[in-house]
């Protein structure tokens, strides 16, 4: 018989009220309390906490405090990762983030979900589906990415987006719900904002 943690990782319905998952969430909260309250100059100490908490990290990463997550061990980040203030990751399932990814302030990544029918939801059932953000993506501030989403490589998600479906590579997408606005082309190399050239 599978444990709640095994069901959670497998994407099956589970209840998170058992001791094992409670203790693991508590451990993450203790680590993040230290992380979020360190002096700004304690850069190496902050990096050490993240390396111990996350499943995989690259060598170069920067996460502005405050940062919050459920477990930490389901978060995998690549090289040259940057996250601005107030990143929240509900990592009940795998959250894999590629190389050279930038995340704006107040972004939320939600692998967790709950039944839409009230009865099983009130009974405490939930599920989790992975999120994958590919290489070279930029996720704009105040974006929400929901469970089961993949963002293709080189894609930009505009600020304030709510991503409810996977987004392909090499596009700009934005809105609620998030949708593709344009394909990124070689011509875009010359511009830094709309019609403003470097």
Please characterize this protein's 3D structure:
This protein has 198 residues and is of the alpha/beta class. The protein has a single domain, classed as 3 Solenoid (UDP N-Acetylglucosamine Acyltransferase, domain 1), CATH 2.160.10. The protein has helices at 4-10, 19-37, 43-53, 118-122, and strands at residues 14-15, 61-63, 67-69, 75-77, 81-83, 87-90, 95-97, 102-103, 108-110, 112-113, 125-128, 131-133, 138-139, 144-145, 150-151, 156-157, 162-163, 171-174, 179-183, 191-193, 196-197. The strands form five sheets. It has a seven-stranded mixed sheet, with no helix packed on it. Helix 2 packs antiparallel against helix 3. The longest helix is centred in the first third of the chain and has 19 residues, at 19-37. The termini are far apart.
Overview features:
198 residues, alpha/beta, UDP N-Acetylglucosamine Acyltransferase, domain 1
CATH superfamily: Hexapeptide repeat proteins
The tally of strands reads 21
Mean pLDDT figure: 97
- For the termini, the CA-CA separation is 60 Å
- Major sheet: 7 strands, mixed
CATH architecture: 3 Solenoid
Following the backbone from N to C, one meets helices and strands in this order, namely HEHHEEEEEEEEEHEEEEEEEEEEE
Query: How much of the sequence is in beta strands?
Result: 25-35%
CATH topology group: UDP N-Acetylglucosamine Acyltransferase, domain 1
Strand order of the largest sheet: 2-5-8-13-16-18-19
Tell me the radius of gyration: 18 Å
Residues in helix, %: 10-25%
Shape from CA axes?
Answer: globular
CATH class: Mainly Beta
Structural class, by secondary structure, is alpha/beta
Q: How many discrete domains?
A: 1
Instruction: Please tally the helical runs, counting DSSP H or I stretches of 4 or more residues.
Output: 4
Low-confidence stretches: none
């Amino acid at each position: 018989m599978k444990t709640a943690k095994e069901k959670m990782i497998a994407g099956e319905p589970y209840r998170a009220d058992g001791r094992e998952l409670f203790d693991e969430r508590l451990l993450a909260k203790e680590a993040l309390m230290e992380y979020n309250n360190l002096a700004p100059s304690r850069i190496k100490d902050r990096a050490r906490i993240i390396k111990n908490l996350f499943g995989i990290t690259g060598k170069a990463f920067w996460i502005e405090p405050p940062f919050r997550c459920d477990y930490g061990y389901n978060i995998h980040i690549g090289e040259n990762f940057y996250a601005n203030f107030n990143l929240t990751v509900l990592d009940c399932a795998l959250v894999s983030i590629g190389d050279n990814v930038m995340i704006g302030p107040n972004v939320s990544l939600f692998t967790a979900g709950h039944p839409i029918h009230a009865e099983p939801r009130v009974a405490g059932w939930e599920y989790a589906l992975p999120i994958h953000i590919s290489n070279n993506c930029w996720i704009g501030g105040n974006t929400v990415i929901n469970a089961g989403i993949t963002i293709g490589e080189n894609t930009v998600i505009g600020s304030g987006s709510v991503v409810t479906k996977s987004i392909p590579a090499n596009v700009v997408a934005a809105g609620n719900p998030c949708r593709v606005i344009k394909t990124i082309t070689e011509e875009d190399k010359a511009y830094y904002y709309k019609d403003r050239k470097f």
